[in-house]
UniProtKB/TrEMBL annotation:
This is Cobalt-precorrin 7 C15-methyltransferase. Keywords: Cobalamin biosynthesis, Methyltransferase, S-adenosyl-L-methionine, Transferase. Coiled coil: none annotated. GO terms for molecular function: protein methyltransferase activity. The keyword Cell cycle does not apply. It comes from the Bacteria. GO terms for biological process: cobalamin biosynthetic process; methylation. Pathway: Cofactor biosynthesis; adenosylcobalamin biosynthesis. The lineage of its organism: Bacteria, Bacillati, Bacillota, Tissierellia, Tissierellales.
């Protein structure tokens, strides 16, 4: 399996989930062929593109026009089909069910997104989010608990990369959080 390096993605001024975090997120989501992934706050589309290459059907939503353009360019560059939505979650999200959801950016609407997932993420589905700010991390965990998600896991990743002259440049610590939507009582 080939993973895409950060420098291969078209970037612009839009945030991107970096390589080592991206690979862990896809592993936490357990992306497989045929999955239906909702990527909220898609940025450059790095999670969407990598997931599509793994065989997932992907719906990517991004509110920034530059981000939508970059996602479109990256989907063409890596020859993947994405259902790209320019808009805000959850109001512009489709009325279909997903079995995986990644939240890279919520626009301050985590509560509304979890309400949406209550009817649009299937039982046993996985939601995963990345956070830099402790307040957002805490809110996400509270919503996972409030909506009775199971197998909640939190991982803190701190990484550094060597620059062109050999200095290590630290990246922001990233919290990766995941939970599995509770299964129905008769499952």
């Amino acid at each position: 399996m080939k993973w895409i390096r950060d420098e291969e993605f078209i970037r612009g001024d839009i945030p991107m989930t970096k390589f080592n975090i991206r690979i862990l997120v896809i592993a936490h989501l357990a992306i497989e062929k045929g999955d239906r992934l909702l990527d909220i706050g898609s940025g450059t589309g790095s999670i969407s593109v990598e997931s599509a290459l793994q065989g997932a059907n992907v719906w990517a939503i991004e509110k920034e026009k530059e981000g939508v353009d970059i996602i479109n360019k990256n989907s063409i560059k890596f020859n993947v089909n994405l259902n790209l939505i320019e808009g805000q979650a959850p109001e512009d999200l489709p009325d279909i069910e997903f079995n995986k959801c990644f939240i890279g950016g919520s626009g301050g609407k985590l509560n509304e997104i979890f309400k949406y997932l209550e009817t649009h993420l299937e039982a046993g589905g996985i939601v995963c989010g990345n956070f830099i700010r402790l307040q957002n991390l805490d809110n996400f965990i509270q919503f996972l608990e409030e909506y009775k998600y199971e197998n909640i896991g939190v991982q803190l990743i701190q990484s550094s990369y060597m620059d062109k002259i050999g200095l290590m440049k630290g990246q922001n610590p990233i919290f990766i959080v995941k939970g599995m939507k509770r299964r129905l009582e008769n499952d």
